[in-house]
């Protein structure tokens, strides 16, 4: 059986209130945009398409698609749905057997966790719906995970499009069969405040 493709959806459409309301994907971190750090961290793990969920003002490299939930600032669940719709429009073959990484633009090294997460999802005897990271403080990171696209699409259909905006991620994901993977701090570190931008 051929190896399933791994796509990626990077969420970058939030309000970044704790950073003064700036465009979070465009925030300069160690001389480069946060979004560029995340894209580079994907390495060769992503074998399919990459979609950035962000406003049109956020530049993306050639070959990377961009979309935005409607209405804007609808939250991560609506962003995931918009990203999946963009993937479905861009990929000629069915996505039913494919995987998708769900990441945020403010976790610069998150893509480096994808091989570990994919292995946890696909190597288990039981068929998990997703594998998500857990940080060193014991917090489960629903937006640092590898998901079966069919499982996400099933949840979207169960909820209905009108219920996605503002929905809590944990509630949306909680019905899935989840594998939780402990990850080192450098892979789960995110940038939320001006203090987080300072060199360690």
From TrEMBL:
GO molecular function: nucleotidyltransferase activity
Superkingdom in the source lineage: Bacteria
Signal peptide: none
MobA-like NTP transferase domain ranges (all copies): 8-152
Keyword match Transferase: yes
Pfam family, one: NTP_transf_3
Keywords recorded for this protein, A-Z: Transferase
The keyword Nucleotide-binding belongs to this UniProt entry's keyword annotation: no
Alphabetical list of PANTHER family matching this protein: MOLYBDENUM COFACTOR GUANYLYLTRANSFERASE (PTHR19136)
Name this polypeptide is given: Molybdopterin-guanine dinucleotide biosynthesis protein A
């Amino acid at each position: 059986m051929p190896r399933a493709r791994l796509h990626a959806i990077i969420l970058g459409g939030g309000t970044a209130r704790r950073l003064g309301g700036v465009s979070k994907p465009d925030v300069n971190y160690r001389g480069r945009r946060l979004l560029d750090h995340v894209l580079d961290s994907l390495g060769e793990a992503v074998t399919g398409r990459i979609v950035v969920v962000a406003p049109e003002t956020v530049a993306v490299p050639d070959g990377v698609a961009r979309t935005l939930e409607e209405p804007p600032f609808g939250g991560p669940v609506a962003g995931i749905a918009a990203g999946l719709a963009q993937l479905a429009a861009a990929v000629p073959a069915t996505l039913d057997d494919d995987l998708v990484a769900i990441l945020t633009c403010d976790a610069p090294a998150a893509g480096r966790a994808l091989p570990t997460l994919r292995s946890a999802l696909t190597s288990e005897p039981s068929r998990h719906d997703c594998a998500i990271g857990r940080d060193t403080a014991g917090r489960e990171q629903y937006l640092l995970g590898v998901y079966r696209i069919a499982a996400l699409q099933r949840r979207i259909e169960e909820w209905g499009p009108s219920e996605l905006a503002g929905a809590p991620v944990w509630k949306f994901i909680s019905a899935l069969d989840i594998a939780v993977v402990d990850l080192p701090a450098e892979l789960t570190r995110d940038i939320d405040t001006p203090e987080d931008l300072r060199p360690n």
